[in-house]
Amino acid sequence: MDRITSMRVFVRAASVGSISAAARHIGMSAAMATKHIDALELRLGVKLFHRTTKRRSLTLTEAGNHYLDACERILADIDEAEAAVSSQRIKANGLLRMNIPVSFGSRFIAPRILEFSHRHPEVKIELGLSDAQLDIIAGSWDLAIRIGQLKDSPLKTRRLGDSFMRVCASADYLDNRGIPRSVNDLTQHNCLSYTLSDMQNSEHWVFGKKGEYKVPISGDLVANSGDALLAAAVAGQGVIYQPHFIVGEALNQGKLVDLVLDKPVMDIGGIHVIYPPDRHPPAKVRVMIDYLVEVFGKNPP
After folding, report:
1. For 275-297, how does the pLDDT look when each residue is reduced to its tens digit (9 = 90+)?
2. Which of 43, 159, 200, 202 is the most buried (most CB within 10 A)?
3. Is the pTM of this model over 0.85?
């Protein structure tokens, strides 16, 4: 008798409490299913089930309980191995749900969806744009992009690139208020702060590669959007401390001036894609991750 088939019959019979019901589910005769159970018991030298005289009602013996645990693990590994091989031939399709920070998603992900869709026309994309650190498992997200230092978790990760901070303001603002030369000079400026970050909140900004310098600041605007702070800074309202991917374009266009201070900006970590810890993620997840790695490898954000 095929041992793997016998294990499947045994596991199904243990689940439904009946050999005949297990046989119907698997698609074989009750007589053949009984032979599989008998063959297992003969090979193992133990009884796996307590049976009624009519052999219609089953309960596991102590040995059966132990063997059931082992069979479930072995069969799961076999199914997973087969799925991994099969998935290489499966074309990516279905809905792919991605959770991404608002500014990054608008600037660097949404404009690239068209090319991805041309490559994989059967994958539909849902972009969930949010700066909140949502639980991707609880939210049923297929993957997410996180910027900064990652916390320890069972999630899998791929690094897409680096992210670094900039301190900047408009030329008009600096003409009126002067140019800060040190982090302590910021105490005399209108600092526009981001409410969702501990390192650039409304009470202090943190500098130094490891955050060893904490500078008290104040300002007349706080926001939970980097884009809102960018717009205010470009208009001349104050100084902002934001990631390069938000302010880089405005700096290149001369709308903002990069400020060089006496302490380095804090190292906030990289840009990562994270996804559930499936040993073999679905094809739609794999192709998107490969695409993002390719895109940002050629054009860092």
Report:
1. 998 767 888 999 999 999 999 98
2. 200
3. no
